[in-house]
Amino acid sequence: MADSTKSATLTIGGKSYELPIHAPTAGPDVIDIRKLYGQADVFTYDPGFTSTAACDSTITFIDGEEGVLLHRGYSIGDLASKSHYLEVCYLLLYGELPSPKKLEDFESLVTNHTMLHEQMINFFRGFRRDAHPMAIMTGVVGAMSAFYHDSTDISDPHQREVATIRLIAKMPTIAAMAYKYTIGQPFVYPRNDLDYASNFLRMCFAVPAEDYVVDPILSRAMDRIFTLHADHEQNASTSTVRLASSSGANPFACIAAGIACLWGPAHGGANQACLEMLKEIGTPDRIPEFIARAKDKNDPFRLMGFGHRVYKNFDPRATVMKESADEVLELLGVDNNPILQVAKELEKEALSDPYFADKKLFPNVDFYSGIILEAMGFPTSMFTPIFALARTVGWISQWKEQISDPQLKIGRPRQLYLGETQRDYVDIENR
Ligand code: SDX
């Protein structure tokens, strides 16, 4: 971080405190309050971190007002149209687009680590068949630290690299196995002659009774969906991974914590909730009823797939996803999909409503993704596992950045305490 030349003056009780201001390469300046408590005996207060930077980072930048998303400086639009997921993984992990040789070596490394330790199959069998695949993924990924002991020492750069490759390589296998387990079909092993997205589709949809040929249209759409979900600054699940890793927890435990956080319907669980909402709406004539509910302060209902903490413009990922939805559904011959029609009409009516316009609520990444995933054959319960699969590289990139920071401190927020001050114990006979 460059030495700050600017500062902010905070005056409390007639006493002034100078707080350094750091300038970013893009985005707002930050006021450095690290010494504030020691100097002024006060905390700052920011539940939900609406105005708080928890770290510095060089990986991803979002301009919420302009609807811009950059990964290591490259726009998500360019990466979604010109790159592919494993190349984006390399970019996020190592900071630069790879040479052809480096890309080939990286893809070969990932491809040759897609199998899961055979004994881990027993973990799947411990779940009920109706378990949510996210519950299974959280458990199995956490259990990886019980099998891959040779990549849990985070002080060893080589072990950090091994854990990185293992998690990126094995997440599709785990997600596919979680799906197969819940539908009672046999697990399908990965193949080394398939690309990352094709391998995942085959592990999900192939059955031993017949050959399975990956549709290149679906594989390209799957790969693009992975790319659109790869990383997104300090969102809730990434912040969970960073906080877990700040205590020195092993990478598998940290990623399992990220999966658990992503599951929430306000976060990665929104793609499942959004499609369920669109199905509940059912037909365009019911849209006004749901928009009225979303606007009603006394109704907890929200339009799922709408709104975002950072984007106050279109989520650029939603724009690409919407184009993909049109393309994939047309190619699959389901372009008259009634749910897609409801989604497009809902978007149009919401965006023309002052409530959403005034609050700058636009469709986010989750609004269209479920429509594509359902058309590809996935049940809604697999939408968030696919988000978790794709976001693993983002979590790991942020984890690597944090634990290689020599100034790393354990994350330990303070609080505004509103409870009882000290009082004497009352024996039960006197209560
Ligand atoms: C993801 O952070 C990330 O980067 C996340 C993510 C990633 O890639 O990691 O982008 C992925 O999580 C996308 C978001 C998926 N979630 C949903 O689609 C769920 C529906 N949306 C929300 O619940 C909400 O918009 C959030 C959680 C996404 C953002 O919430 P904020 O930033 O805390 O905003 P808020 O709840 O304070 O809302 C501001 C106002 C409120 O009204 P007022 O109290 O000011 O009157 O807008 C209203 C809210 O009631 N509002 C909505 C709404 N979202 C916000 N009203 C109706 N429908 C909605 N969807």
From TrEMBL:
It catalyses: oxaloacetate + acetyl-CoA + H2O = citrate + CoA + H(+). SUPFAM superfamilies: Citrate synthase. It comes from the Bacteria. GO terms for cellular component: cytoplasm. The keyword Aminoacyl-tRNA synthetase does not apply. Signal peptide: none annotated. The active site is at H308, D366. Pathway: Carbohydrate metabolism; tricarboxylic acid cycle; isocitrate from oxaloacetate: step 1/2. Keywords: Acyltransferase, Transferase, Tricarboxylic acid cycle. InterPro entries: Citrate_synth-like_lrg_a-sub, Citrate_synth-like_sm_a-sub, Citrate_synthase, Citrate_synthase_AS, Citrate_synthase_bac-typ, Citrate_synthase_sf, Citrate_synthase_typ-I. GO terms for molecular function: citrate synthase activity. CDD domains: EcCS_like. Transmembrane segments: none annotated. One of its GO terms (biological process) is tricarboxylic acid cycle. It holds the Pfam family Citrate_synt. Belongs to the citrate synthase family. PANTHER family: CITRATE SYNTHASE. This is Citrate synthase. It comes from Sulfitobacter aestuariivivens.
